Here is the input.
Amino acid sequence: MKEMTTDTLVIGGGAAGMAAAVECAERGCRTILVEREEYIGGVLNQCIHNGFGLHVFKEELTGPEYAQLFKSQIRQKGVETRSDLFVVKVDAKRREVVTMGKNGCAIYRPQALIMTTGARERPFNSLRIPGTRPAGIYTAGVAQRFVNLHNRLPGERAFVLGSGDIGLIMARRLTLEGMTVLGVAELMPHPGGLARNISQCLHDFNIPLYLSTSVVEVHGRERLEGITLAKFDPVTLQRLPGTDETIACDTLILSVGLLPQNELIESFVETDPVNRGVKVDSFMRTTHPWVFAAGNNVGVYDLVDFVTLDGKIAGQSAAKMVHDGFLPEKRVPLARTENISTLIPSLCCLEGNPFTIYFRSKKTMKKARISIGPGLFETIRMGIKPSEMVDIPFTVKHMEKLKQLGLSKIEVSLKEVL
Amino acid sequence: MERLLKIAVIGAGVVGSLIARQLTRYRCEIHVFEKEEDVGWGVTKANSAVIHGGYDDLPGTVRARFCAKGNKMYAALSEELGFELNRIGSFVLAQKPEDFSYLETLRKQAIENGLTGCAILPAQKVREMEPYVADSILGGFWCPTAGITEPWMVAIGAVENAVKNGAHLHLSEAVTGFITDEGPRGRRIAAVKTDRSEYPIDIVINASGLYADELSELAGASCPPLHPRKGEYLLLDKFDPPLVRSVLFPIPSAISKGILVLPTVDGGLLLGPTATDLPKGEKQETRTTREGLSETLSSARTLVPTLDPQWTVKSFAGLRPESPQKDFVIGKTEIDGFVQAAAMRSPGLTAAPAVAEHIVEEVLIRECGYAFERNDRFTPVNPPYENVSRLSLTEWEKRIEEDPLYGKMACVCNKVTEGDIRDAVRRGATTVDGVKFRTRASFGRCQGGFCLAKIAEILARESGRSLGEIKMRSGKTEILRGMVRE
Here is the structure.
């Protein structure tokens, strides 16, 4: 059993973890990046489509290209990566991380811990959809892994349930590789994925999108033989009788949401019930002073660029904490108003660097007024959609004003402007 | 050379497996025929996994006789065969004042069936032991010897042990008929026909679950008609600390024990089953239904109101054989050499070890008078399936020194290493479900999202097959159907 101390330890080598590790190392911290898979890069490694990096690098990159830019920096800055390493336990009292890998057990004692453990896909089996339990039903990520990393096709005729981005991407990918993609069903009256993916992955390939529609039964005892679709009321989400339609297919691809993964720390940090991820402040610090977090384990982002930016903040903050021994403690909670679902961060610090407030709207709005405050600032945004996160820069000036106003909470409000 | 008696056990579920293993205590030639690709994939795989106390079977029934005894036998059996058994105890919960008379009946039956330690506990005591039960719970009948297990692991352990002791296992081989001839005691079994071959056989043990009546008919033996009773279940995610610690029963209905709430051995929570009687022919009708799943949830919530459907990991349905008598059919038939171990409805799992012993010791040896010699080389112990992540860190490290694959995590939800999966494949898992049932890999909250590809790769590597040939379970269940690039 090896024991070692380090300045910062990053758990999870995906987009957030790589960005955080690079920032730490750049600030002179001894940084160890732990990854349970064979390679760092996370899900980017299997996302061979382009569209990554428009915000961070101002160019369109594929997932592996985007990851490679960070992998190079990780080597240059001297981040020590430990792949194929599984974290058994995070012990907050002893400030220890117990890991197990091919070389046995190692216990790390970092001065600051950064959790970038990402999200997992909501599985089909958890949806309680009646019917048989045949082979041929996969989450989009699993199908993507089989196609892009294992050179295998899941079947011949596919239907996609859920219009999350990865489902849309896979609808296009499977079509390009010769499968027939019969359509995409979305329970909600609006798509779950980005408008650009609806256009580039569905419209460009004549793949129909059925809104307010879902799979109500699966058929086939051995391999999937078909699915029954039904329409749902857009407001009450109740199934509409007489709308059932059965479609023959041998593959069902699921893209019905991502769930933040925080099994290692959820017993000692607070979780936001709406984001389903850990609560963080504008330093990307959790409710435990030793632990920072960024990326999809905080809340589900729609762009890897946003994940990278928050990962960077987590890394910068952890490094500052290692150097200074503390971070400013005064924080004001951010509060949702009725139209807001996901909201990151949960708390705003009164000091520190500028950051970005990310939120998701529950409704589609042509034009909306976003008010941060009361009394801090307002802005107008066009084309608000539940599927697209809104990013609102929060500057040092805003922090000053926040201190002057002495607010006990910051309300984030979103109202349609008619 | 002496001629050994040739015995065919039809069905490698819990009942058939335990009978086969019991037979290997004697010198005979044993063939276990299983139509599925693996062991325990019929009735065994989808039931409540409860080792019942034995208090609710009417004294005098065959069920009562074997259930209480089987429960006791499970202690030694789990040690020998290496499967998990947790005696977590069970409650039958009263929600109305008049329910207490039923609890009193159970208390008396428990004594008559030879149980000890059972008691009717007041609401306050129930709540101390089970803090999440509904406010409406007025008290409960407590049975400390009830437990939970993984039924398929009982079957796998028993079959592995039987094979080690000389039994022949024929997987993916369905029995299609029998040849009988005239013997000194009337019509007798001469041979068993399968979809692959024909075997000269002296004794047939019919442990074919839902199909026992059909096979009896093929042999000309009488058996009450069996129909499938479907039970739908919801499996919920793990909780730490656990939400429910023991098996919670409602007051039973006229046809079943009702919908239970109980922990699984790996820490999940199981709700179910419903009880839907299906026509005789629908022996593969394991579809879940909207009504069934919502009934499961709403009934379970009458016991534990905080249960949240959002915690669902999986929904499934299983079939159990039911006969008009609602009792087991065990023993010899009018066809000499054709022995029934049939209609094993609830509490079949619990009763199985006692039934296995009875079939061999009482039916074959005493009643039928077969002369068996003891098998001196019989060894009762089957090594358990190991999960290295449950060892101490030091012990786990030692295993990694022996083989680094024990340091490579494949299933992150249930912490199963590639080494453990490889071992399961070498011990007999040929499919993704085979690995799942032996190791619990992909049984957890991600349901294979992170590990399906890894399990498939290990299966392919170990068996020299390509990924495209890897199946979920029996039949045409290939997980993949073609190459992206040749």
